[in-house]
Amino acid sequence: MKQLFNMFKLESKASVVRLACVIAAVAILFTLPAWGSKYAIMMVTLMGIYITLGHMWNLLAGYSGLVSLGQQMYIGVGAFTLAVFSNNFGVPLIIGLLLGGLVSVVISVGLSYLLLRMKGMYFAIASWMFAEAMVLVIVNLPSLGKGQGLFIVAARALTDAQKYYFSVVLLLVVTLVMVILLRSKTGLGLFAIRDNDTGAQTSGVPLFRSKLICMIIASFVTGVAGGIYYITMIWIQPYTAFSISWTVAAVFIVVIGGIGTITGPIVGGVIYVVLSQYLSTLSQLGSLNMVILGVIAVAVILAAPKGIVGTLQSRFGFEIISARRWMKKYVDRLPEPLV
Predict the structure, then answer these.
(1) Which pLDDT tens digit goes with each residue over 233-259?
(2) DSSP secondary-structure letter at 157?
(3) 215 with 112: CB under 8 angstroms?
(4) Which value, to the nearest 10 degrees, does the dihedral of the CA atoms of residues 126, 132, 138, 141 take?
């Protein structure tokens, strides 16, 4: 926790601005249902879910080198687990969300011993194949509605504001966890893995354990996010819940915002939700929405290869939320260079 508090040390004007921005953002998020429109509440609810998904894909691809194309599996697993426990056993929705995350972790740990033996495109393709296989399991189980899906009965009683707070609290907790994780010793190892996994392993970084930790966190949070999304939708359809469009959205968010940054998925998530909602109102586009988003992503990659946040950080050196550890006390201990 000490490293987290160090992030906001008010030793410069930039630190004051950073702290003020974070406090203002949190205040706006918690008070929005009191003064915002129904449409604004819906938009921010979606932003919270998609930013969370972006954080998790960024944790895997941006820091662990695990380019997963199968994160949609945990969306579906989390949602169906929530529906089964809340509908059949009367479990409260919050407990159902946590159970969805735990079931996702069990599946992730089981698959990790196969997936973590692979790298690059082999890992990506294998993760996608497992996600597709999970769809076949779900649609052939009568207790899960086969291909028809399930309703989350308890979700019908929730107000829009209650659904909103599920999303916002998840977003804030996940962002906090990301900061704490990346500023820890494990985080230093992840930075080393991101830059050169072979060199990191040679230097003593436990490669398998570090990647396994990332997979566990990503699967748990993605499972919970999937449950929250379908609480807002009330009805789960398997082919939609396990659609690769979830991972495509996460990739878009991270690429646009800036891979390997904390603030990148936040900026990318806001842009994605605004664009996707606007494009969905243009009925004449039909299925061209994803094509347009793809063109936008390519344009951003060409203009700013590090993403919006990554490019701004490299040019101006300013970060709203930094994952870098406070190293001044260590720098002060270094001996003077020999001349």
Answers:
(1) 999 999 999 999 999 999 999 999 999
(2) G
(3) yes
(4) -90
Where in the chain does DSSP place strands (E)? 150-151, 235-236
Token readout for 321 is 């939320």
Q: Which helix (H) or strand (E) holds 236?
A: strand 235-236
Structure tokens at 203: 């230097």
10 Ramachandran zone, left/alpha/beta (phi>0; psi -120 to 50): beta
DSSP assignment of 127-149 equals: HHHHHHHHHHHHHT-GGGTTTS-
Q: Which two tokens stand for residue 182?
A: 């990346």
Q: What is the pLDDT of residue 60?
A: 94
At 33-51, the pLDDT tens digits run: 999 999 999 999 999 999 9
d(CA 109, CA 210): 13
The secondary structure element, H or E, covering residue 151 is strand 150-151
Q: Are 28 and 43 in contact (CB under 8 A)?
A: no
Report the predicted TM-score, pTM, of the whole model to 2 decimal places: 0.91
* 30 or 336, which is more confident: 30
Which is more confidently placed, 33 or 287? 33
Mean pLDDT to the nearest integer, 50-78: 94
Question: How far apart, in whole angstroms, are the C-alpha atoms of residue 322 and residue 4?
Answer: 9
β-pair partners for 150: 236
Question: What percent of the chain is modeled with pLDDT above 70?
Answer: 89
Task: Please report, in angstroms and rounded to a whole number, the separation of the first and last CA atoms in the chain.
Answer: 39
Domain spans in the chain, listed from the N-terminal domain onward:
2-327
The two structure tokens encoding residue 175: 């962002």
Residue 272 Cα to chain centre, angstroms: 13
* Amino acid, res. 55: H
Domain 2-327 in this protein, CATH class: mainly alpha
Supply the angle between the helices 207-233 and 93-115 in degrees, to the nearest 10.
140
As a whole number of angstroms, the distance between CA 111 and CA 228 comes to 24
Identify the residue whose tokens are 């194949």.
Answer: 129
